[in-house]
Amino acid sequence: MTASAGGERAGAAPWETVVGLEVHVQLLTRTKMFCGCSAKYGDPPNTNVCPVCLGLPGALPAPNEEAVRLAVRAAYALGCTVHGRSVFARKNYFYPDLPKGYQISQFDEPLATGGALAFVSVERGPVTVRIKRLHLEEDAGKSFHDRVPGKTAVDFNRSGVPLVEIVSEPDLRSPAEARAYLTVLKQVLGPGYVKVSNCNMEEGSLRVDANLSIRPAGSTELRTRTEVKNLNSFSGVERALTAERERQVAATGRGEEIVQATMLFDAATGAVRATRSKEEAQDYRYFPEPDLPPLVLTERWLATEKQALPELPAAKRERFEKAYVLSGAESVVVTATAAIADYFEALVGAPGAGSGKEVWNWVANDLLSLSADGETIPLPVARASEVLQLARAGKLSRQAARRVLPDLAARPADAALAVAERLGLLQVSDGGAIDGWVRETLEAHAAEVARYRAGEAKLMGFLVGQVMKRSAGKADPKAVSAALARALKP
Ligand code: ZN
Ligand code: MN
C-alpha cells in the first residue's frame, strides 16, 4: 500500500503528508559558471579545470552569460518573477570537494521568486505547486569513496558547473505527487520544451532533496520535517518518501517525537536511515561575494528572453483540447514534447488528413511507436500524410499501414504508395479477385457455410477472416463482407 489521497491511518489518526522539494538543475552550457573550462559530462577526471574552478588564490570569477540566460528562461518557464538585480553570495562550508571552502550561490537576493508549476495528481486531480525561489549557483566537485582504498578521490570537472536551485513550497501531499511534479519539471525544463538542461537524474544533471513531515489530516500546521537525500531516480524519490512517511507515522504512533534529521535512502534495501545529526547544525555564514558585482539584467533583455519561450505543455494541452476536440488524456500524449506536438499539428493541417481525433489515433497508436526516444517521430510529416490518405481512400488497411510505416521511415525518399506496392500491401477492392477468394473459401469451409445457413450468424466473422487470409490481407474487408453476403444469400 503506497500513497493514499490525503493521508494514511495510524491507529485512529489519519495522517496527511507534506512534501517540499529542492531541485538542482544543471544548465546546458558549453562552459562553466565562472570560468572557461568545459562543462562536458563524462570526461576523464580533473581534465576540465583551471585556477578559478580549483579555487587557487588570486583567481577571479567572471559570470557566464549563457548560464544567466538559461536560468532566466527556466525562471520564466516556471512563472517566476525575475529580478533585474540579484546578488551572488558565498555559502561557506568545509567539504573536500569544495576547493574554495565556499560555494558561489545566491541568498537573500535571488534571481527569481514566486513561481508555480501545475501537474495532475492521481490523488487530487489538477494541483498547482508554488515555487518559492530559483537561484543561480555553481556546482561542487564530485567525491568518490570507492576508487582508492581507505581514501576519498575528488573529480573537479564538475566544480563550477552552472546550476539553478529550484525550491518549492511544501505543497505536495504524497510521494506520488513528488514524482509527478518532477516529471513535469523535467518535461518543461528538459530537451522536450525549454531545453535549459538535460534533466538527467542518472547523470546528475537533475538532483533532488526532499523535505517531508506528517500532520493530522485537515490541519494546516507544519510539523518538524526531515530531509531525504541520496535520491537517484524518479521512482527512487517516490520509494524513499514512502519509506520516510511510513517511518514517521510509525514513530508518531509509538508516541515518539520526530526530530529534525537528514535521512539517506538506500535504493538497494528501500530503507531510509538517519545521518549523524551533527551535520544538521549548519551555519553557512552567507555574505555577498566580493569578487562579483550584483547581477543586473535590463528590462529589455528580460522581455526578449520571456518572449523567446516556447508554448509550454499546459498551454498546448488546453489549446489542443479545444482546437482538435481531444480529451485531457489524449492531449497529454501528443504534447509530450514540443516536437511531437508540432508533428501532430502539421499532420492535422496536411491535405486530406481527417479530424483531429483521427490524426491523434495515428500519432498515438502508429507513429509514436516509430520513435526510439519518445521525443521525436523519425518520419517526414509529408510521408505520414500520404499513408493517412491511402488509408482514408481504402487503399491501405490499418494493419498494412502499420507495416508500411517503418519501411517508409527507413527510406523517406520513396513515396508511400510505392512502398505499399513493393510490399504487396495495397488493398484489392476489385470485385473479380474478391469473388474468386470468396468462392474458394466457401468450398473449403462447407461445414461452416451449412451452419451459417442454419442460423449461426456469428460465423460471418470467421468467413470474412478466411477470405482475408486467402487474399494475404490485401482484400478490402468491406468489399469482402459485401461479396460474402451476396454469395450466401439463399
Ligand atoms: Zn575552470
Ligand atoms: Mn544549492
Chain-wise SSE layout:
Blueprint: E1 8-10, E2 13-26, H1 65-77, E3 81-82, E4 85-86, E5 88-92, E6 102-106, E7 112-121, E8 125-138, E9 142-148, E10 151-155, E11 162-168, H2 175-189, E12 206-216, E13 226-231, H3 234-253, E14 262-266, E15 271-274, E16 287-288, E17 295-296, H4 299-307, H5 313-323, H6 328-334, H7 338-349, H8 356-367, H9 381-392, H10 398-410, H11 416-422, H12 431-444, H13 446-453, H14 459-470, H15 477-488
Parallel strand pairs: 13-14
Antiparallel strand pairs: 1-2, 2-11, 2-12, 3-7, 4-17, 5-6, 5-16, 7-8, 8-11, 9-10, 12-13, 14-15
Bound molecules: zinc ion (ZN) and manganese (II) ion.
Residues 24, 137, 165 line the site of manganese (II) ion.
Describe the structure.
- 36% of the residues lie in helices and 21% in strands.
- By secondary structure, it is α+β, with helices and mostly antiparallel strands.
- The protein has three domains: 9-305, no CATH class; 313-422; 431-487, Orthogonal Bundle (Arc Repressor Mutant, subunit A), CATH 1.10.10.
- The strands form four sheets. Strands 1, 2, 3, 7, 8, 11, 12, 13, 14 and 15 form a ten-stranded mixed β-sheet that branches.
- β14 and β15 form a beta hairpin.
- α2 packs antiparallel against α3 (234-253), α5 packs across α6 and α12 crosses α14.
- Manganese (II) ion is lined by residues 24, 137, 165.
